[in-house]
Amino acid sequence: MWHLTIIGGLTLVVWIIIKSKKAPQENQELEIGLAGVAVGGRKISSLSIFWPTWLNLKLLRLLENPPAAFYLERFLDNPETLKAGIDYEGKPVVLKPLHTLVIGPTGSGKTEFMRNLIESWPNRVVAIDFKGGLGFSKAFGIERLVTNHSEDLDEFLDYVSSELENREINLASGQKLKPMIFLIDEFASVVKQSTKAAQVVEQVVSKGRALELHLFASSQTLSGVSRTVLANSLQRIGIGQIDQVDAMQMGLSKHTRPSFGPGWSSAQLAENNLYFSFPLGQSQISRISQAKTMGLGDSRVIDLSRVRVQSKAQ
Fold first, then answer.
1. pLDDT band at residue 217, thresholds of 50, 70 and 90?
2. Reduced to 3 states, what is the DSSP secondary structure of residue 312?
3. What is the 3-state secondary structure (H, E, C) of 51-91?
């Protein structure tokens, strides 16, 4: 008899605990994060066998087509260098340190894409930004930056040429070279306005691969991009709706895919015709600054345990 009393008491305690917690409602927002699953901002038990059927079905549908926030979490949590975005199977896309050409119309997100790349790059970066420096003046990790308003463009180009020469000497002496990125935003404008820039670029794409000095250039179209640059750019990326002739010359498919949603842009890597999306306005340095402002430390990922704290702070 006493065991029946104990069982009855335990059942009563469990029933009271269950009743004391408000059951999740179907109209509440469902979130997936590193901390688990939350409904209406409240994390729920990991024992899914106790979840209502509607919640399990809703979660399965969500996992089939995760929201942009879920992909952003994967992107920021990816420790690889030169991370480009997330493909349509949910896997991180990582580029190689090779000469890279990025083509896309105005407003497609080229600058954001390039900034995301270099902020995951642990080695040296020098850059030319012909948008007045707006895109890269606050980017993390750039050693030296010149713009269309800088008076030292020629001096900067001499610096890049000297870097090439020094690397040739160091390589000949048996030294191991560390990779370096030479980034140019609005490439066509740069080479059009500066003959010297066009000459230095030709040197970089001709010699740089062996010397671990890699050109990463973005432009609206292939107009102004020389055959030498195109031929030596082994990584070719199209962002947004690019010109069909340019797509053919870049080795890209004429078909495009929609982005994951607001705050994302779609892109295509010519190698294997790989489609992916990348975040806009979500560079690592801005995320870290935002997290520190909120008192969350050096966090680079979305964590459900912090979601409500963030929303309150905002």
1. very high
2. helix
3. CCHHHHHHHHHHHHCCCHHHHHHHHHHCCCCCEEEEECCCC
225-246 pLDDT, tens per residue?
A: 999 999 999 999 999 988 889 9
List CB contacts of 41: < 8 A, sequence separation 6 or more: 29, 31, 307, 308
Res. 107: pLDDT tops 80: yes
pTM of the model: 0.73
- Spatial CA neighbour of 203 closest among 182, 218, 176: 182
Strands 100-103 and 92-94 come out as unpaired
**Among candidate residues 149, 299, 116, 308, the one with its CA nearest the CA of residue 216:** 116
Q: Which of 159, 155, 198, 197 is nearest to 180 (CA)?
A: 159
User: Following DSSP, what letter does each residue of 130-195 receive, concatenated?
Assistant: TTTTTTTTT-TT-SEEEETT-S-HHHHHHHHHHHHHHHHHHHHTTPPPPPEEEEEESHHHHHHH-H
Q: Do 191 and 199 contact (CB within 8 A), yes or no? A: no
Q: Which residues contact 51 (CB under 8 A, 6 or more apart)?
A: 44, 45, 59
Q: Which domains does the chain have, with CATH numbers?
A: 81-282 (3.40.50.300)
102: helix, coil or strand?
Answer: strand
